[in-house]
From TrEMBL:
One of its GO terms (cellular component) is plasma membrane. Residues 10-406 form the Ammonium transporter AmtB-like domain. One of its GO terms (molecular function) is ammonium channel activity. The chain crosses the membrane at residues 12-33, 45-66, 101-121, 128-150, 162-183, 195-216, 228-249, 261-280, 286-303, 315-334, 354-376. The lineage of its organism: Archaea, Nitrososphaerota, Nitrososphaeria, Nitrososphaerales, Nitrososphaeraceae. Gene3D superfamilies: Ammonium transporter AmtB like domains. This is Ammonium transporter. Belongs to the ammonia transporter channel (TC 1.A.11.2) family. NCBIfam families: amt (TIGR00836). It is found in: Cell membrane; Membrane. InterPro entries: Ammonium/urea_transptr, Ammonium_transpt, Ammonium_transpt_CS, NH4_transpt_AmtB-like_dom. PROSITE patterns: AMMONIUM_TRANSP.
Length: 408
């Protein structure tokens, strides 16, 4: 099939939108933590953009998308993007140049490990962060992405994930839970240290994430047209509906609707609809958004308030729980009327799809949690994970980067 100029333009725009999400993630997180640590998460996300883009160029793309080695990992055909066509397509995206596809997928590989920064905010050494994101990409993200998106063994079993609910949100969410447990709580963990220092900055980050997510999900159609259009609508409706649920739940709990609640609810809806966005209709996305709102809100209450797990920015709930719910929803709500290349779910005559999706979720969750635990234990035994107590008191901006976000 010849290269399509319209599809290529659409994918270049989508790539730019998805790239925007990484600094947006930094703004979102920085606003929701204490001012003395705000630069540290911005440094992690922005430096992570550079580190992980380079790693993808050198190694990641070939391990995920080069011809499979018995379903487990890609070969080394495309090291340093060698032999990736710029005037011809690859099998995964037949109407756009191969380098366009590789560049688009780079943005997914960049943001996935950086989601975990929200879990270990305010207490991880930057040198440990540097080692962690590289190891996590090589040993967790690249294999899992190959197994599903690179036509590996999970894809052969019929597991579907349109834009990353299993590959990205389930794996990063369960990794965040493991990271929070291994690192332990921040000093004086409780309401006094969980006060956002700059909510407007967090709102800016959330708004840019919402915009970028259209490239994240609708761009995963890998072509302009009806599927991309439906995916964009589905993405927006699920996010808006989840945000509404959070507004009402926060209003009921505290007597006043919360700004931080509405932005967290929107992100929860975006994360949760991601795996199913290319397989469901708008009516189903409305229902899914309601479920995602309730699931993510009460997961935070369970993990943080009842179990006292210090996942600083609730990645395990807002991304992990929603990624699991959205991935399983494919097994119920998916219809080939929306996407003939996708599956039918339980409501459309295929009850086995739910079990297949559950297998994919289970594998991603186990790899994300277990692999993260191993990586962090090794780092802790070698260079150490957590900053010293006095450094935590002073703040990571000064102790790790010798900079201040605000000078008075």
């Amino acid at each position: 099939m010849p290269i399509d100029t319209g599809d290529t333009t659409w994918m270049l725009i989508s790539t730019g939108l998805v790239m925007l999400m990484t600094p947006a993630l930094g703004f979102f997180e920085a606003g929701l933590i204490r001012s003395k640590n705000s630069l540290s998460v911005l440094m992690q996300t922005f430096s992570g953009l550079a580190i992980l883009s380079t790693l993808w160029f050198v190694l990641g793309f070939t391990l995920v998308f080069a011809p499979s080695q018995n379903g487990w990992i890609g070969g080394l055909d495309w090291l340093f993007f060698n032999n990736v066509p710029f005037n011809d397509s690859v099998d995964y995206a037949p109407t756009i140049p191969g380098v366009t596809f590789g560049g688009y997928q780079m943005m997914f590989a960049v943001i996935t490990p950086l989601l975990i920064t929200g879990a270990f905010a305010e207490r991880l050494k930057w040198s440990s962060f540097f080692v962690f994101i590289i190891a996590w990409s090589i040993f967790i993200y690249y294999p899992l992405a190959h197994w599903i998106w690179g036509r590996g063994w999970l894809a052969d079993l019929g597991v579907f994930d349109f834009a990353g609910g299993i590959v990205i949100h389930t794996s990063a969410g369960m990794a965040s839970l493991a990271a929070a447990l291994i690192l332990g709580r921040r000093k004086n963990f409780g309401p006094d240290i969980m006060v956002p220092h700059n909510i407007p900055l967090a709102v800016i980050g959330a708004a840019l994430l919402w915009i970028g997510w259209f490239g994240f999900n609708a761009g995963s159609a890998l072509a302009s047209g009806s599927l991309a259009a439906n995916t964009l609508l589905v993405t927006h409706i699920a996010s808006a509906t989840s945000a509404m649920v959070w507004i009402f739940l926060s209003w009921k709990r505290s007597g006043k609707p919360s700004t931080t609640a509405v932005i967290n609810g929107a992100i929860a809806g975006l994360a949760g609809v991601t795996p199913a966005a290319g397989f469901i209709d708008a009516q189903s996305s409305f229902i899914l958004g309601i479920v995602l709102g309730f699931a993510s809100y009460y997961a935070i209450l369970l993990l943080k308030e009842h179990w006292k797990i210090d996942d600083a920015l609730d990645v395990s709930s807002v991304h992990g729980v929603t990624g699991i719910v959205g991935s399983l929803a494919i097994g119920i709500l998916a219809t080939q009327v929306v996407n003939p290349a996708g599956p039918n779910g339980l409501l459309f005559g295929n009850p086995m799809q739910f079990a297949i999706q559950a297998l994919g979720v289970g594998v991603a969750g186990a790899l994300g949690f277990g692999g993260t635990a191993v990586i962090m234990k090794v780092i802790d035994k070698t260079i150490g994970l957590k900053v010293k107590e006095e450094e935590e008191d002073i703040g990571l901006d000064i102790t790790q980067h010798a900079e201040r976000a605000y000078v008075t």
